[in-house]
Specification:
elongated, six-stranded antiparallel β-sheet, 57% helix
């Protein structure tokens, strides 16, 4: 999946997840009571986190790695549900306590978006901690998600407010009309999904793009201390169907703030700009990596 498609699918899936979250929240809770708003926020956060976690997992892993996808998505759902419950409850509590100012409800949606963004990276951070690896990669993903989610919650909350005002002017006295809350939830889902994805892409550090070979056009963030390349299902960059590629062919890792590539004693070798890699080799932005019949471009953000 390319970065452009990743952003597109996060926005679309976030919007549709908000529709389901709105319907589920409305079925479970009626009215804008403290508990009701908390339940609606929980449904919204849970469903958006589910959708975005699934898009993120399928971007990183192949469909055949189902157990990885399920574990990542499950953690996203848990964190998103807690975030939505906390955000909805706090927002409604402040709204009721301090003069019905809409800014407090928007603040609640900012908290919800922030926690949804946190859910996208918490799996990577926890995995690095359990494996006693460097935490910086997982922490960066969490930070990007938190920034994007908070901005998405703010923008979506503002749109929710303005859409509610628009519906109220068109249908005065119809406070129980379903459309304002539905359109507001869709705006929230779209904005949270869109801005979390944009933050992940715009603030990326280093990434790979497959220019020839399996899943040509795929772009992948380097979001862990060691990224494996090969045709095994466990590899981070899986290049399946090419028998010239070993199950574990090469690794990209970071050392002293720079990225290096090392061959894993493969039969057909690993090449950078047509030069065979005989020892760990420094990668520079724009370098072309060849493994088997696959060509992969390395890119790094300017320092």
């Amino acid at each position: 999946m390319s970065f452009r498609r990743f952003v597109y699918w996060c926005a679309i899936c976030g919007g549709w997840a908000a529709v389901v979250g709105w319907a589920l929240g409305r079925a479970l809770a009626q009215g804008d009571t403290l508990g009701g708003t908390g339940i609606k926020g929980m449904c919204l956060g849970m469903l958006i986190a589910l959708a975005l976690g699934l898009v993120d997992a399928l971007w990183i892993y192949a469909l055949r790695s189902s157990w990885r996808v399920v574990s990542r998505v499950a953690m996203c759902v848990g964190v998103g549900a807690i975030g939505g419950l906390v955000g909805g409850t706090i927002g409604q509590l402040l709204y009721d306590a301090f003069g019905n100012l809409m800014a407090f409800q928007i603040f609640g949606w900012v908290l919800t978006g922030l926690m949804v963004g946190l859910s996208i990276g918490c799996y990577d951070l926890l995995r690095s901690w359990v494996r006693e690896e460097e935490l910086q990669f997982g922490a960066r993903k969490v930070l990007r998600g938190v920034i994007g989610g908070a901005l998405g919650g703010l923008l979506g909350g503002l749109l929710d407010w303005r859409l509610g005002q628009g519906w109220a002017s068109l249908f005065p006295g119809k406070d129980d009309l379903w459309s304002p809350s539905l359109t507001g939830f869709i705006a929230l889902g779209l904005c949270i999904g869109l801005l979390i994805a944009v933050a992940q892409v715009v603030l990326k550090e280093a990434w790979l793009k497959v220019e020839a070979g399996f899943r040509k056009g795929r772009e992948l963030l380097i979001s862990k201390p060691v990224l494996s390349i090969g045709r095994a299902e466990s590899c981070d960059l899986g290049l399946f169907g090419d028998m010239m590629i070993e199950k574990l062919h090469a690794r990209i890792f970071q050392q002293d703030g720079r990225y290096l590539i090392a061959d894993n004693d493969s039969t057909h070798g690993t090449f950078v700009n047509d030069q065979r890699v005989l020892e760990p080799t420094l990668l520079r932005s724009g370098d072309l990596i060849r493994v088997g019949n696959a060509y992969v471009r390395f890119r790094e953000r300017k320092r």
